[in-house]
Amino acid sequence: MTYDVDAIRKDFPILSRTVNGKPLVYLDNGASAQKPRVVIDAISDFYANEYANVHRGLHTLSGIATDKYEAVRETIRAFLNAKAEEEIIFTTGSTMGFNLIAYGWAMENLKEGDEILLSVMEHHANIVPWHFLRERMGVKLRWVDVALDGSLDPRTVINAIGPDTKLIALTHLSNVLGTVVDIAPIAAEARKRGIATAIDGSQAAVHMPVDVQALGCDFYCITGHKLYGPSASGAVYIRADRQAEMRPFMGGGDMIRTVAKDEITYNDPPHKFEAGTPGIAQMIGLGVALDYMTALGMENIAAHEAQLAAYAQDRLTGLNWLNVQGHAPGKAAIFSFTMEGAGHAHDISTVLDQKGVAVRAGHHCCQPLMVHFDVPATARASFGLYNTTDEVDALIDALETCHRLFA
C-alpha cells in the first residue's frame, strides 16, 4: 500500500491545532504519542453506550464490555506474535510490567548474590525495580556500557554474563539514543545457560515489527500511550514456562478462584496476574490503536520513519554547534542533543516551544546514560508515524533560532 502521511495526519485531530501561534510540530512521541480519531471515538462510545464492569456480570452491558476487553488480548498476541493469548498479561504500561516481573518472578527465583545484567541506557522502569531487589534481597546489578556511537554489540552483553547472572534485562530500542539492540542472539545464549531475559519493548513495538517468538525472550513489556493508545494501558508478554515459576504480584478480584478464611486458590493465567477492576476503556482503546497501526502496516511505518531518521540525521549533523548523542547504525528516529551556549536542555525546549515545536528535555528517565555521556540532560526530538520531512525542517529552523539567541 502507498503510505499517505498527509491522509494519516488527518486521522489525528490534535495535529491541526496551533501552539503559540504556530502550527504544532509534535516531536515528543517518545514520551507519549497522539491518538487517532478512531481511538478517541472508541473510548467515548464505550463510556456513552456500553460501559459496565467486565467478567462475572451476566447482564447485556457486562457481556459487551467483557467481549471487547478480552478481544484485545488476541490483538496484542497477534501484534507481538506470542504463541498463546494466555501469555499476554494486561498492565497499565511497561513500569507495571517490570514490577510484575520483579515481584512475581524475580523475588521467587533469585537469591542474595544473584546478578541482574543491565545496560547503561535502560529506562528507569527497567532499573528501579531491580534496585528494590538489591536493597531488599541483596541481588547484584551488573552494568554494560554502550559504545561511543551509542550502539550495543550483543557480544558485549554475552561476554559480561557471569556465573551468578540469573536475569538479563535490556531495552530493545533506546528511548534516548534510538539504538536498536539485537536481542535474539543474547536471548539464545541466555536460554542455553538457563538465564531469563526481560526486554523493554516500550519504544521498539512502536517503530518496527516485533516477534517475541523469534526474539526468544522470556518477558517483553509494551506500553499503550506510546502506541497511539490511551494512558494507563499496556501489556507484558510472559512465556508460559516462566509463568509457571511465578507467584501473583497483586491480590484482589479476578485473580482468584476461591477465597476462604484459611486458604485461597488462584485463577489460571492470564487472570492470575491481573487483580482488581482493570482499565477497561483504556485497554479497548489500545486494541483499536494496535488495529490502526496494523492496518497501516508495521513494515510501512518502519520504512516511513527510516526515511525521516535519515533526513533528520543529515540535517542535524549539518549544525556544527549541535551535539547529537548516539549515531548507531540503523537507529530509530529519536535524536537527543545539547547545544553549545545553551545553559540547559530546558532552555532549548522552551525556545522551541515558542516556535510550536514540542520536544522533551531532561534526563528522560535514563540517568545512568546521562552520566555515561557526561551530560546533565538533553533535548530530545522523537518522531512518529505521522511526522514529515517538513516538520524536520521546522525543527531545524527552530534550533537555528535558538542558537542565535544563545550565541
From TrEMBL:
SUPFAM superfamilies membership: PLP-dependent transferases (SSF53383)
Signal peptide bounds: none
GO molecular function, one term: lyase activity
Example GO BP: cysteine metabolic process
Cofactor section: pyridoxal 5'-phosphate
Catalytic activities: (sulfur carrier)-H + L-cysteine = (sulfur carrier)-SH + L-alanine
Enzyme class: transferase
One Pfam family cited in the UniProt record for this chain: Aminotran_5
Lineage top rank: taxon: Bacteria
InterPro entries: Aminotrans_V_dom, Cys_dSase_SufS, PyrdxlP-dep_Trfase, PyrdxlP-dep_Trfase_major, PyrdxlP-dep_Trfase_small
Annotated ranges, domain Aminotransferase class V: 25-395
Sorted UniProt keywords: Lyase, Pyridoxal phosphate, Transferase
UniProt EC number: 2.8.1.7
NCBIfam families in the cross-refs: sufS
Family: Belongs to the class-V pyridoxal-phosphate-dependent aminotransferase family. Csd subfamily.
Name of the protein in question: cysteine desulfurase
